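Hello forum,

I keep getting stuck at the same step: I have a sequence, I want structure tokens, and every attempt I make locally crashes halfway through. Rather than fight my setup again tonight, could one of you with a working pipeline run this one for me? It's a single chain of 225 residues.
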Amino acid sequence: MIFKGTKSRTRAQLEEKIENMGGHLNAYTSREHTVYFAKVFKQDVSSAVEILSDILQNSEFSTSAVEEERGVILREMEEVEKNKDEVVFDKLHETAYPEAGLGRTILGPRENIQKMQAEDLRSYIKTHYTGPRVVVSGAGAVDHEELAGLADKHFGALPGHDAADGALVTAPTDPAHFVGSEIRVRDDAQVSTHVAVGFETGGWTDAHSFPLQVMQQLLGSWDES
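Reply #2:
Ran it on my machine without issues. Output:
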């Protein structure tokens, strides 16, 4: 939805702007982050940051676009449900973090997708896309001072304190507590068994967080092939 036009750019104008720069604009969602990113040449960093700020703060969310995207997400959900590698990790999180956001699927339940409206998206962005919750980062041919200045220029207006009482703007908290448990889903029609095992480790703020991520990269990933 965030790429379907802003108050100052149509969807076609947005796509044309990125293509003329030879750039790439995309996004991805994990259980803990939503990331919007642009890959551009060094001379276009300022334009990329401006575009990112525009789509995050000024997207239109038209009713027709919401209806179009609703169908796309429902079809995507059907594909995910067919992929047992995805399903087994959804079940792992569901049983490890019950009653918490970390235990829910990224796409969410079908009934939520079917009833989602443009105003729900605007409300979410107003609540969650605030200064204390947003990180602007760059990698490659990026000058730190330049990027810091661009971040201040284009994202400095994000709310950081409530205008009424000066309190820090915060989204509702949803703490996740790890629970050691087990879930089994039996389907004798399947020809293979999928197993996932998880155990508690350090969070993002833990001193061992980065060493653990380095170890993960060293070990790599693999499958039956």
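The chain has one domain: 11-200. If your local run keeps crashing, start a new thread with the error log.
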